[in-house]
Amino acid sequence: MTATRGLEGIVATTSSVSSIIDDTLTYVGYSIDDLAENASFEEVVYLLWHRKLPTSEQLDEIRKQLSENAKIPQQVVDHFKSYPIEKVHPMAALRTAVSLLGLFDEEADVMDPQANYRKAIRLQAQLPTVVAAFARVRKGLEPIEPRTDLAIAENFLYMLSGEEPSDIAVEAFNKALVLHADHELNASTFTARVCVATLSDVYSGITAAIGALKGPLHGGANEAVMKMLNEIGDIQNVESYVKDKFDRKEKIMGFGHRVYRKGDPRAKHLRTMSEKLTSITGDSKLYEMSLKIEELVTSKKPLPPNVDFYSASVYHSLGIDHDLFTPIFAMSRVSGWLAHILEQYDNNRLIRPRADYTGAVNQVYVPIEKRV
Ligand SMILES: CC(=O)SCCNC(=O)CCNC(=O)[C@H](O)C(C)(C)COP(=O)(O)OP(=O)(O)OC[C@H]1O[C@@H](n2cnc3c(N)ncnc32)[C@H](O)[C@@H]1OP(=O)(O)O
Ligand SMILES: O=C([O-])CC(=O)C(=O)O
Question: Which family does it belong to (predicted)?
Fold first, then answer.
């Protein structure tokens, strides 16, 4: 048995949710470019779960189901208030809150497809409310209830600030949600599938996936990009920063990808959005710095920016706290995780690979008093 480090290139399942072929990303065969330009996030959720674009009636129906299920139990808010919240990372809070939501869901352990679909609706609807509630409670503010007349992108921005967001903010945020919704067998989606393939429940699968997304080599990279931009501070420092990183053989956050070679097709949409938003806010510093970093990194190595790189300046321009960037990724990716979880249940087999053992062999047990 020979191990492949990081399972690179290993095909671990079949899936009809999304595909990456020759650097082209599609959801159910629809190009990400087309969806980013035209689709609402709710349409994408429907597409991922039903493998077809909704008619207007079907879209109205899923919107209604999502908005009717967006409230969260008061106990989740009380839970946030019960610990030193200012020291807690929002991804840790989100991971815990999803696990907690499972305790209040009477159907949590009901395993039939209809019950699992209802849980998918509840989780998709509640995650934005959880993230917004956490963001407010830690500032000593009361959470704002979700509105039933707003779509997910608009509602989330409204629940964060209490103000109706501008059209451009909604457009940018909806696009970001569409772009992050699914991505074939990335680490967090694989985690979700491994978890539920034991026939564990949907809440366990999503909790596990949030844990995997949190790391800076995956979803946590968007917050790490923002930290890097702050550390660089000024466009004049970009060159020496990038050189130092390469000299020290350290990773530059927001660059590189396991699957894409020529580049992540989502990055250009976020780059354009970053340019648009920063020109509106009148503060193009982060965008200019990001462009310069991209130019220098790609001139040294074939390492194009990934989805996390320009999402940092997009979210910053929307006035969002930097440690909420990864929870926002989760609010979108939960749609993909749920599509994969439902697909896994549909044709399940336990996921249990092997390890190439490299430890000691033929050891003889030594009584404790004789050990040195
Ligand atoms: C939503 C997402 O999850 S997108 C990815 C988000 N993560 C990041 O942006 C973190 C930075 N990027 C990385 O760490 C990597 O590119 C990953 C984890 C995304 C993919 O990595 P892998 O396929 O495992 O590649 P690996 O880490 O083995 O790197 C291969 C080579 O490229 C280099 N490399 C890869 N990414 C980077 C980077 N961001 N900066 C500098 N060098 C890099 C490695 O140092 C290595 O060089 P070497 O062959 O000379 O030793
Ligand atoms: O596919 C991956 O490995 C990571 C990624 O870009 C994503 O999850 O969006």
Answer: Belongs to the citrate synthase family.
From the candidates 182, 201, 264, 308, give the one annotated as an active-site residue: 308
Q: Name the catalytic one among 257, 269, 316, 340.
A: 257
ipTM of the complex: 0.99
CA–CA separation, 84 and 89 (whole Å):
11
Instruction: Tell the residue nearest (CA) to atom 15 of ligand 1.
Output: 256
Determine, yes or no, domain membership for 360.
Answer: no
Does residue 283 have an active-site annotation?
A: no
pTM score, whole prediction: 0.98
27 φ, ψ to 5°? Answer: -105, 120
Residue 218 Cα to ligand 2 midpoint, Å, equals 7
Residues 45 and 188 in one domain: yes
End-to-end Cα, the chain, rounded Å: 34
pLDDT, tens only, 23-78:
999 999 999 999 999 999 999 999 999 999 999 999 999 999 999 999 999 999 99
Domain extent at residue 143: 14-214+326-346
